[in-house]
Each structure stands twice: as structure tokens, then as C-alpha cells.
Amino acid sequence: TPGVRPLVAGNWKMNGLKASASEFRSMLDGYGEDLADLTGLMVCPPATLVLAFAQMSQDSRLSVGAQDCHAEPSGAHTGDLSAEMLADSGAVAVIVGHSERRQNHNEGDEEVHAKASAAWRAGLTAIVCVGETEYERQEGETLDRVGNQLAGSIPDGATADNLVVAYEPVWAIGTGNTPTATDVAEVHRFIRTRLRERFGAEEGGRIRILYGGSVKPSNAEELLGVDNVDGALVGGASLKAEDLLGIAMTY
Ligand code: PEP
């Protein structure tokens, strides 16, 4: 999208120990100044590594995000983390509504909406994930599903600074299968239209829409070259700095 700085964000899921963070950082440093003006690069490590990543990333080439947050700022929620805590640890963004959270933790749009609001309350960018299952695609329900998730999961007041949308077809996550460029284009165009209708032509036109689902260096050019694709949310391939950079460098 013209005038929009792309974002390539890695989602480490439940992977990574302290050593992985420093290894990743050294790999990145190996790329030297090439990175400075690249596309925005972000890693969303497990919450145990957010602080370590933030401390290693004070040169602004790499920003740090988290993978989930609780909707409340504090309280009796054993094991949960608030958006404020993540911000305090150095995160600038948080993924909400990832399909693995929607499936494994039964998160619905209402909860994702509350988590996105919490992210904003803490000054974080919310990376809101949407995407259809394989069954929904077969039934021709992809746009309905994505439209409902957008309407239900994104609070009023979204801007290009506080919101990133990630389109992640559930059947493409971790499977090696990807939609065709034509299918990606159709869904991203649809999301763009909805964002413009709701948040205004200009603001809605600048909100980044990432594609996610089995992105790797070898298919990045095709997928990221599609209209209205403003970057990628990368799972498996983000664990290796060279692969995440390989994807980012397609821009
Ligand atoms: C994800 O889970 O956000 C993702 C895109 O995973 P993968 O790249 O491994 O398909």
C-alpha cells in the first residue's frame, strides 16, 4: 500500500529460551546497517523473553511484541499478564485473537475486542488476527467469517498507529499450504474496504494488513507482492533470524 511502511513480525509461539534471544540478536547484528531502513521488523517472543528482547533492541531496528494479554489492567488472574505489564517490559505491540488462542482457549470476538482495547489502554499496537477455517473456505464463507471477526474484534477508534490486522487463514498456519495470490488479494481487498468504511478512507487506507500462514523466504515475494498486503506475520520461519530477515528483505 503506497505510503505505508511494511511490517514483518515473527510470532515465536511457545518456543525460545534465553539463549535463543541472544542468538537471534547476534544473527541480526551480522546484517549490519542493511537493516536500518528496512521494513519494520518485530519479534513476538514468549512473554518470558519480552524484557530480554527489549533490552537487546534499543537501537530501534527490531521492536518487540507479545502474543496475548489479559483484558484487565491488574487483579486476581493467576497466570495472566496485562497489557500494562507487557508495555512495562518493553513490548510495543501485542497479538490478540490468534487462531491458536481462539481455538485452544475458546476466545471469541468479544474477548478479542476487550484485549485489543486493553492493548490501546496500555499504549500498545494491537495486532488483531482474523481468518477462516478450511471448512469455512470450502463452504464459501471466507469473507463472511472475516467480516464478522473484523466487526467483532476491532474496537472503535482504530488508527494506523494502534492497529495492525493480520489475515491468517487457519488452514494455512503451520501447514505449508498457502492460498493463491488471487485468494489473498480478494481477502485483503475486502479487509481494506471494511477498514475504510469504518475508520475513514484515509486512516483505513493506512492501517497495515499483514498476511500470515506458512510464509517463508521462498514464497514471500509472491505473497507480499499482492495488493493490500503490508507485511507478514510469520510463525515457524521466524525462529531463525536469517529466514525472518530473508522475508523482510523481499521489500
Ligand atoms: C502464525 O501462527 O501466526 C503463523 C503464521 O504460523 P506459520 O508461519 O508457522 O504458518
TrEMBL record:
The keyword Glycosyltransferase is assigned to this record: no
Catalytic class of the enzyme: isomerase
Pathway assignment: Carbohydrate degradation; glycolysis; D-glyceraldehyde 3-phosphate from glycerone phosphate: step 1/1; Carbohydrate biosynthesis; gluconeogenesis; Carbohydrate metabolism; erythritol degradation
Gene3D superfamilies assigned to the protein according to its UniProt record, in alphabetical order: Aldolase class I (3.20.20.70)
Domain of life: Bacteria
Entry's localization field: Cytoplasm
Positions that bind substrate: 11-13, 174, 214, 235-236
Active site: 98, 168
Main location per the UniProt record: cytoplasm
EC annotation from Swiss-Prot or TrEMBL: 5.3.1.1
Catalysed transformations (reactions): D-glyceraldehyde 3-phosphate = dihydroxyacetone phosphate; L-erythrulose 1-phosphate = D-erythrulose 4-phosphate
Annotated GO CC locations: cytosol
GO molecular function: triose-phosphate isomerase activity
Xref: InterPro entries: Aldolase_TIM, TIM_sf, TrioseP_Isoase_bac/euk, Triosephosphate_isomerase, Triosephosphate_isomerase_AS
Pfam families named in the record: TIM
Keywords, comma-separated and alphabetical: Cytoplasm, Gluconeogenesis, Glycolysis, Isomerase
One BP annotation, GO: gluconeogenesis
Family statement drawn from the similarity comment of this UniProt entry: Belongs to the triosephosphate isomerase family.
Subunit: Homodimer.
Reported function: Involved in the gluconeogenesis. Catalyzes stereospecifically the conversion of dihydroxyacetone phosphate (DHAP) to D-glyceraldehyde-3-phosphate (G3P).
HAMAP family attached to this UniProt entry: TIM_B
Protein name: Triosephosphate isomerase
Lineage of the organism: Bacteria, Pseudomonadati, Pseudomonadota, Alphaproteobacteria, Hyphomicrobiales
